[in-house]
UniProtKB/TrEMBL annotation:
Protein name from the UniProt record: Putative transmembrane protein
UniProt source species: Cupriavidus basilensis
DUF3298 domain span: 232-308
Keyword Transmembrane in record: yes
Pfam family, one: DUF3298
Chain ranges passing through the membrane: none
Length: 334
């Protein structure tokens, strides 16, 4: 499948949105929400940057015509990690602002005994379109941030057509990290060429933002430069550090029940070429293994989060300090 700008059809109305905020001023919460057609029901995911963020938590809820948003984590047997409110049944209830750019409300635990004020800001809208290209049906969903350079990165991952011999393909790009220093995207593509089932694969893109040394991020004249980041850029060079990363990957794959965890390790060339798609969260890196990569198709895909803290001195974190999304007055350049 070719990557790049998808066809000339006009994008449809927004099909969803990415909302971000912080609990306690330290834990970033990201909600990706999609409406159910013809109802006020919604589905989506929640991510917490303080956690081993490989698996998002599934959400359902409502967004009413008068702007009341109510979401709840679905009970899926996911154990809480590090942050006590990130557990099955946690809820958020709030009101969308009149301009549609923020939601203010309360985040609460399962029984409502612990509540915290939370304001979410809309960071992106998701659009969706379906076109026929060379006899194949392509459906794609992709985010738009309104920031030219970030949207250009998104465009670079968009699908322009299905592959040779494919009858149908569905491509979805998700924002995995968006803050003052980093943009991390994951494209998931399902393809069908006939037979018992389709295939699934991942493509990722991560960029680090650079500015002039000593420049204030809030200054109107700051020039922002984004550069593509490879997996090797996150790890100190040398066999010892590569082995440390591989130990973490293999141990996590074993815990998740992968049939062939040894196939998930990287050699030096695979590291340099970023052969395994990866994305960032504020605490570390997530590697995404497609079906068949570390086991039979029936086992599905695997996501392995490796905290930078577990890599110790071998890590080269993609960002330091308190992150925030770029402000509108910050100029971008490439």
């Amino acid at each position: 499948m070719a990557a790049g700008q998808a066809g000339a059809a006009e994008p449809q109305a927004p099909a969803g949105a990415l909302w971000q905020g912080e609990l306690d001023g330290r834990v970033q919460v990201s909600l990706t929400i999609f409406p159910r057609a013809g109802t006020d029901g919604i589905d989506g995911t929640a991510r917490y940057d303080s956690m081993l963020a490989a698996a998002p938590r599934q959400l359902d809820g409502q967004l009413t015509s008068d702007g009341r948003l109510s979401v709840r984590e679905r009970a899926a047997g996911q154990a809480p990690v590090e942050y006590p409110e990130a557990r099955d049944g946690a809820r958020f209830e709030g009101t969308v602002s009149s301009d549609g750019l923020s939601v203010s409300g309360e985040w609460m635990n399962t029984d409502g005994t612990r509540r915290q004020a939370l304001t979410l800001t809309r960071k992106a809208v998701y659009r969706e379109r379906t076109v026929n290209v060379a006899g194949a049906r392509l459906t794609e969903r992709y985010p738009e941030t309104g920031r030219p350079r970030v949207d250009a990165m998104i465009t670079s991952l968009r699908a322009s057509s299905c592959g040779r011999g494919e009858q149908e393909c569905r491509s979805a790009i998700e924002v995995m990290r968006l803050d003052a220093g980093n943009v991390s995207l994951l494209r998931t593509t399902w393809r069908y060429s006939g037979g018992a089932h389709g295939s699934l694969d991942f493509m990722s893109g991560t960029w680090r933002r650079y500015g002039p040394a000593g420049a204030m991020a809030s200054a109107p004249t700051v020039q922002l430069v984004y550069r593509r980041v490879g997996l090797a850029d996150l790890l100190q060079p040398g066999e010892a550090c590569l082995q440390k990363l591989n130990d973490e990957l293999q141990a996590a794959l074993k815990r998740q029940g992968a049939a062939e965890p040894a196939r998930g390790v990287l050699d030096a060339q695979a590291l340099q070429e970023s052969r395994v798609p990866f994305t960032l969260y504020r605490g570390g890196v997530v590697l995404h293994y497609a079906p068949y990569a570390v086991g039979p198709f029936a086992q599905g895909a695997y996501q392995v989060a490796v905290p930078f803290a577990r890599l110790g001195s071998c890590a080269r974190p993609a960002g330091t300090g308190r992150d925030k999304s770029p402000e509108p007055n910050e100029k971008e350049s490439t």
